Amino acid sequence: MRLITDYPWFMGVLCLLAGIAYALLLYWLPLSKQRPRHYIWASLLRALTVSIVAYLLLSPLIRQQQHEKERPIILMAQDNSQSIVLCKDSTYYRNDYAHDIDALVERLASRYDVHSYTFDHQLSPATSPSYDGTSTNITHATTQLLQKYEGQNIGALILSSDGLFNAGQNPTTTEPLPYPVFTIALGDTARRRDAAVTHLRHNRTAYLDNVFPLEITTLASDLQGRSQQLTVRHKGKTIFAETLAYSGPYEHKQTTVSIGADEAGLQSYTVTLSPLGDEVSKQNNTKTFTIEIIDGHQKIAIIAAAPHPDVAALRRSLLDNKNYEVDCFTGNQYKEARHNWKTDYDLIILHNLPQKGSPLDIDIANLSSILVVGSQTDLTAFNALNLGVQIATNIDKQTEATASFNRHFINFDYEYGANIEQMPPLAVPFGDYKVSEHTATLLYATIGNITTEQPVIALSQKQGIRHTMIFGEGLWRWRLYDYLENNNHTAFDQLIEQTATYTSLQTQQDRFRVDCNRVYGSNEPVIFEAELYNDNFELTNQPTAKITINNEEYVFEPHGNRYRLNIGMQDTGHYTYHATVLMGDKQYSARGQFVIENSNMEGSILVANHSPLNTLSQQTGGQMFYPSQLKELEEALLQRDDIKTIIYSHTSYRELLNLPLIFIIIIILLSAEWVIRKYNGEL
C-alpha cells in the first residue's frame, strides 16, 4: 500500500508545519507565559489533527496491489451411455471403477480444482453414472466444456469413454482443444458373436403412390458360415425379405430396398434381422423408422384464350408427373364449366388471359396461378391484377428475347439453368417492365446480346397466395429443343413442374398454423410453434391458444409475436394433436400428427473403439490410459509443467478521504484533546 498525490513531497511537510503552527498559536502564545504540562499533550493532538486535515485537502490516493491465486482446473467427463456396460460386467463399472475414480478425484482435489460431469447426448453436472444414455455425442460434450470454461485456467480434461459415438461429429476431426485431453479407455474391445442393424438411410418424406429407397446397413461379427433373414415389415405385414449369408469374421452388408408409398400420413416400418440363439445382444437386431407419405395429387386447370402449342407443351409436361391431374379449357369453355375454381383446383394456368376485349371472369386474387403473358393478353387488365410486375407500353408489339438464368434465385433449386439459356427466343411483350421489391425473378430477358433486368419468369406472393408470371409465347419450342439437344424433356419438364409445385403452395392460407417435426427421437424434446394472423394478415398472439395431444391439454406460451410450446421428451408411439384459438367470434383450429421413435442407438455396436480416444489425446498433447492405470494418469498430471497455479495481480486506487478509518482517527484525536482539557478544568 502506498500514498500517491499530484503535489510535490514538500507539500506534506508544509501540512505538518501548518499543524504545528496552529497548535502553537492556540496553546503557546505568548511564549513568556508559564503553562501547565497537559498543554504539551493537547498541542500534540491538535497539531496532528490539523496536519491530517490539511493533507486530506491535497486529495491523496492509496495504491493497493492485491495478488490472487487461481488453481488449475481439472475437468472430468464420464461417458454415461449404455454401451459402457453392455458387454462388460456392469458391477465393475458401477462399483469398483466408480470407487477408483472417486479416489482419484479426491487425490487430485488437494492440488487442483476438480469439476466433474457426465455425458451421453448432452453434458450434465456430475452424478453417479447410471449408464442409461441412449446415444453418445463426445464432440458436444467437449464443445460445451470449452464454452463453459472459456478464459479460465484449465489444466486438463480427463475423458472416460469407450470411444463409441453415434451422434454429432467425430471428435478427432474438430479443432483440437487448447488443453491436454487424457482419455480413459473403457468398454470391451473383444469381438463378440453378434449381428446388428446399424444404420437406416431413407427420405423423410415421399409422395403417395411413388416408390422410395431404403438403404439398410448391417454388421455381423463371428457369424461366418451362418445366415440370417432380413425383413422389412409395415403394419405387421412383411413387404421385403432377404437371406444374408456371412462368409467372413466381420462383415458389413448394405441392402437397398424399394418400398411403395401406398398410404398417406406418417408410416412406420420395422427392419429386423432374425435373432440367433448365441448372439450377445438381440436388441440391436431391430430398428424402426418413420416416413411421412404426402398425398401430392393436385388438380390443375389450364385456361387458354385460344388453342396454342404452348398449352399442349404445358399439359404434356404436367401429365408426365402422375401426381398431377390436368383439365384444359379454351375460349369461353371455362365460363360454361361452372367450377368453383378455389376448391376444385390447386392451381390455375392462364394462357393469354385476361384477353383483349374479353374480361376475365375468374378472381385470381385468392387462387394460386401461373399467367402466360403473350400477344393476346390485355396488358391494362393484367396490370390491374397488381401481381408484382407492371408493363408500361403504348405499342402492341412483341420482341424476341432469350432467357438468362438468375443464379441468385433462392425460392427453389433449379439445376438446368444453363440448358434454359440455350433455348430458342420467346415472343415477349414490348414495354417498360417494373418489378416490385417483393417479386423474385427466375429468368431474365436477354435482348440481342444484352441481358436486361426485364423478367421472363417472375414469382410473387400476396397474402399467402403465390403467383407466377411467364412473359412470352413459344414455350413449345423450348420443350422441342430440349428433346433435340438432350434426347429428353428433363430441363423443360422440371422447370414447369418445380414452378407449378412452388406456386400451388399457399403459405398463409390458414389464419392459424401449427408447426412441429413429424418425427422425434425419444431423447428429443417435442416443440410446437404456432402463428395466428389477424384480419390484416399481421401476426398476433393476444388470444389464448390451446392444444390437445392424445387427450392431454396444454396452453401455448407467447413467443415474440408467435406462440411456442415445449412439452419435453415423450414416450415412443404415434401422437395426434388438435390446436384451437378463439379470435373475436371465430374459432380457428389445426390438426396433425407426429411420431416418437426409439432413439436408443447404444446397442448397435458392442465392441469398444479406442482409436478415436487415442487420437484425441495425441492431438492435444495428452495420453490414453486404461482403468487399471489411474495411478499412472495421476503421475502424468503431476509431472506436467504447464498445469500450474496462475497468480493475478490487481492494482487499485482509492481516495484517502473516502476511508472511514481516517474520520475515526480524527474524531479520536479531537475527543482525546477534549478529554484532556475537560479533565484539567479548561472547558
Short description:
The chain is of the alpha/beta class and 683 residues long. It has 15 helices and 37 strands.
Write the SSE topology:
Layout: E1 2-4, H1 10-27, H2 38-56, E2 61-70, E3 73-79, H3 83-86, H4 90-108, E4 113-119, E5 123-125, H5 138-148, E6 154-161, E7 181-185, E8 194-202, E9 205-207, E10 211-221, E11 227-234, E12 237-245, E13 250-260, E14 265-273, E15 286-294, E16 298-304, H6 309-319, E17 324-330, H7 333-336, H8 341-344, E18 347-351, E19 369-373, H9 379-384, E20 389-392, E21 398-405, H10 417-420, E22 426-429, E23 432-435, E24 440-447, E25 450-462, E26 465-471, H11 475-486, H12 490-504, E27 512-515, E28 519-521, E29 527-532, E30 545-549, E31 552-555, E32 557-559, E33 562-566, E34 573-583, E35 586-597, H13 611-620, E36 624-625, H14 630-638, E37 646-655, H15 660-679
Helix pairs in contact: 1-2, 2-15, 6-11, 11-12
Question: Your description of this structure?
Answer:
- This protein has 683 residues and is of the alpha/beta class.
- The protein folds into five domains: 2-65 and 653-679, no CATH class; 72-190 and 607-638, 3-Layer(aba) Sandwich (Rossmann fold), CATH 3.40.50.410; 194-294, Immunoglobulin-like, CATH 2.60.40.10; 298-504, Class I glutamine amidotransferase (GATase) domain (Rossmann fold, 3-Layer(aba) Sandwich); 512-597, Sandwich (Immunoglobulin-like).
- 24% of the residues lie in helices and 36% in strands.
- It has 15 helices and 37 strands.
- The strands form eight sheets. Strands 17-16-18-19-26-25-24-21-22 form a nine-stranded mixed β-sheet.
- A hairpin with a 2-residue loop joins strand 11 and strand 12 (237-245).
- The longest helix has 20 residues, at 660-679.
- The radius of gyration is 41 Å and the shape is extended.
